[in-house]
Amino acid sequence: MSRLDANEAFRLIHHYMVKVEREEVDQWLKEDPAVQSDTEGIMDEAWMYRFNAWLQCKGTAHEMGIDPQTKIDRLLDEIDRLKQEIKQLKSEKLLLEAELGQDPF
Questions:
Q1: pTM exceeds 0.85 for this model
Q2: Domain locations in the chain?
């Protein structure tokens, strides 16, 4: 496994991932405790996976370092969003069933 410096890591992440900004990579480098404790300042492939996991959790209830109330608020928002999505999907299902002439029950 080859090793990369931080600038090469950004270029690699930017090349393979959609909509990754330099600011996001910089934020990750500042926030991730494992990155902070790395004294070599060298990144390998495992760090790319770690960045990807961090990026997926950013802004969610699973984000590292958020307080419990923020986590609860984000989970409640997600529940509301999912309930709305279910409602919309049920409505679409009824419309499609009506187009096919099927009884919705």
A1: no
A2: 1-58, 62-105
